User: Fold these one by one.
Assistant:
Number 1:
Amino acid sequence: MTAGSSQQGAAPVAGSPWRDALRRLRRNRAAVAGAVYVTLIVAVAVLYEPIARYGTRFTLAENHLCMRNQPPGARAVPRVHFRLLPEDQHPFADVDSNNDGAIDAAELSARVRALEFAHLDTNGDGDLSLPELDAAPRVLLAPDLAGLRQHLDADGDGRLELDESGTLADIFPTSEAGLFLRGFDGDGDGRLDADEFPGVPAPAVFRMGTDALGRDVLTRMVFGARISLLVGFLATLVSVLIGVAWGATAGYVGGRVDAVMMRIVDVIYGLPFMFLVILLMVVFGRQFVLLFVAIGAVSWLTMSRIVRGQVIALERQEFVQAARAIGSSHLYIVTRHLIPNALGPIIVYATLTVPAVMLEEAFLSFLGLGVQAPFTSWGAMASDGASPGVMLNYPWLTIFPGLALASTLAALNFLGDGVRDALDPRMRDDA
């Protein structure tokens, strides 16, 4: 009976508090969904390079001025990240139009133009109609499409064929042909022979459209996830380091030191947050590294108060008194006893700080004080599409980064709330 009673009494403490918290976190479906979503976004951000090379096939700064503000589904030949088509789809002899046994940049350009023309010629009748021309990049076309077509129609047959449309050099990009040639010209003779020719680059799809400079929105979205998450996590790390060190020192030392340190916190609390960040950015320059340092340097105030309260409560416990009795140093007591026992509230507040910091970075970028070109973030992308004319005519420039930012912030908040509930001792059960 005694053994059975002892076994029954030991069951609730069989798992550590951290294991119990993990079990409660797993039961929270919203927190688990948030964790899965955040993990997916982090993986996308980390894998930007292979995604850009083999997925979107466009680079961050690569711009196609002939494809400005194009909706999702538009196509262009990538200039850097080529996915080469098999030679049986583009035989060497077909590209070698003059049959001299080599392919020069002009022949490659002609094939690239043919690919672009075939994309614009949606009905496949061999000419570009007015609706097809209207679907082409309008920024480089005259407002009067009929007049433009009549001007380019050299033979006057009312049709704009491939050779005639070649006059629109900006519509059919040819500079990538030279890049392609230099990339595979092993002997450096300026031409590709049959052994060097791997196939003509295939057009790629702008799955989320293009911006005002003809840059792929999806590629910039993937890179923007890296910047937004990096700023969020690193600024939170800076906030945690400063807040924990400040709060632990104030709470452990106490007395006048505690009073002075917390009055400094109160004074900083009274200053406008955005004013401090803008002041730091103006004084030290708008550098990428300084962005998360500036945000983290003014986001540690609440963390310091939380840690101070925990340290004051833990300092009176018996294990701290025992550590002092055996001659442990103050630094050892703080770092090995007090801070580890205050990790629960620290972790909870840190998880809730990440989405707050990301939102602050998005606001700064929206004001033009955040990430600077050639880098970008979701906030900066939303700012680019925020003007009334752009939002009405090219809504995808605002919708995609806005949805990404909103969904990620919601997932982080769900995860933070779940961690808070899981680490709450009042939520502990005997299961």
Number 2:
Amino acid sequence: MKVIYFSLDYTPHDYRFLSALAETDHEIYYVRLQRGPRQTEDRPVPAKIEQVQWAGGRDAFRWRGLPKYVTGLRRIIRRIRPDLVHAGPIQTCGLVAALAGFHPLLVMSWGFDLMQDADRNWLMRAITSYVLRFSDAFTSDCDATRRKAVQYGMDPARTTVFPWGVDLENFRPQNSVVRRPSFVVFCNRSWEPRYGVDVLAKAFVTVAGRRSDVNLLLLGGGSQAQAIRQILERGGVLERVTFAGQVSNRDLPRCYHMADLYVSPSHVDGSSVSLMEALACGLPVVVSDIPANKEWVTDGADGWLFPDGDADALAAKILAAIESRKTLPKIGRAARLTAEARADWKKNFPKLLETYQIAAARRKE
């Protein structure tokens, strides 16, 4: 089967999908719609994948460029004559693919496109509904996004859900217990409003004010960098925070192993890959009680939930975890079992190939 994989930017998730697709019998063409000047994945596109150069891959996405993108994708489709177009997120790549008029079209939600972007205004609601009603199949990584897609008009019989999962061999618990002089809280979410790292910063100020044996490890960066640093500086805890910047996927497991507790204060998410990585590493987690997180974490069993956006509640959960440190290994073992049962990338990925067949069958109908 010839497949056009059409995605916004080039991320670690894209690399993982393309690497897995490269190992199948399908002929994969990668079309990138550029979001901005900086990409988040530095590994080259897998060798067996043909990356298509086109106008939409040169400059950052602009709504006024929509006619150009549609025309360009139509040219690509005429040249390649694919059996399937796999596109997402919904309101960018999904929209361009739908306007190009090609069937069969598989639309893949990236979480934020349904849980946040779809409800921004009447135009985004209309775009979301149009794309989903046009699509032949839909896939997402959690039930929360699937339910939202159905609300916007997607036929539930043509939907599939599979958590994108992680490499359980790469992300696994340490062989030996490491005793640290301080309790380390870890977060690797981007410093953007949807991920709530500012909530964690406020909570850490409270925690650090009550405990002298706790430190914070932050990865990444983002548009809220100045605001987050100001929160920590004004709280007098900046020297107890390690800013580790960008870390390669190869080195990422080591960061989980350096921590005692993982925190994801995200306001919007699908099945978070970083959450699955933490679970796979046997790391107890504290996450916001948004629908997608509640599909993964059972409060008090493999981690804890706190009310989304409530910094005081998050601080209380972190303090409770520190005070019950002796129980954390048990929580960590339960976290690993959750990952083994549901977050195995090698077991979950074939679900995507089944979805390709669903979309192809819809075209024949």
Number 3:
Amino acid sequence: MIDPRVERLAELVVRYSLEIGEGQIVRIDGFDVAAPLALAIYREALRAGAHPYTNLTLDGLHELLVKHGSDDQLAYVSPTQWREIEALDAQVTIWSEVNTRSFGALDERRHGALIAAQRALSNRRWERIAAGELRWCGTLHPTNGHAQDADMSLRDYEAFYFAACHADTPDPAAYWRSLSATLNARARSLASVRELRILGPDTDLRVGVDGRTWIAADGKYNLPDGEVFTSPVETETEGEIRFTFPAIFSGREVEDVRLRFEGGRVVAAEASRGEAYLRELLDLDEGARVLGEVAFGLNYEIDRFTRNILLDEKIGGTMHLALGAGFAQAGGVNTSALHWDLICDLRREGEVFADGERVWKDGSFVAPLDVAVAGERA
């Protein structure tokens, strides 16, 4: 028997996030462990009259490539993949893994080379998304690996995850439409801001956002979702910030990251654990030391750290900043093979000032919105 929450999530992806229509070409990507959700999305896409197909791969293939492949093989991207990304109308990525730490013992430089090669394909996807030519949504099917990372049983993790997506309710799309109004109102309230100043423990960071577009993440690109974000002005980040949550990238964990910015670039970096990997990522390319994103996490259903960035970057009351590639639709121009989200917990001792006026304190915006709040604390 299929879990009804899986069916509701699949319907939400197809009907709300991607708005898939008749005759559209839809690819469903993921590892074989994601099969239950992939099948449900495939079934729902058929019901919508689309032409879905799956791109499910075996767990462990990328690890074999990093361990045994030549430099040329690491850098290779199949021409078939390039042709497909041009032909798709919609794409679903299911980020479910059996072992979330499978890259932990592999060579960091070689892993970075694989990331860089795949990022080029991802960048083209975002170009098509920005041009309105492609719809994409990233989501997850709960697995034991993700539950273990979150220090939860699989049953508890499933309940937590589906609640964050509101797939445990009869009409999750109604919730996301309501939240969309709230998040878009919040994005509009930030539209005229020139500079943010983020204050917290070991944190005093100024981020220029003048002229950039704030975007409401309302379940169209990710499920679960719940944030407002933009791409900062690339040369206008100054100061220091400490990320007390572990920063995780491709299964590798870096603890207690501290960064200092001057002229928009990271000029000093340290971590209590994983510092070598931190420096490897910062040196990945010219754009890796520049911020590509600043965002407010506003999904208060997500109230704990799970070691999965799909959920953790939306923790209600936090902010996250991403090193590397920016978003063209937000006005970002920074390019990089890296896009690494790091989370700053501001729920107890955090303040944010917009052009000198306090707009955020201890995990909440201080000014209420004119629309009914659904999911965001005023």
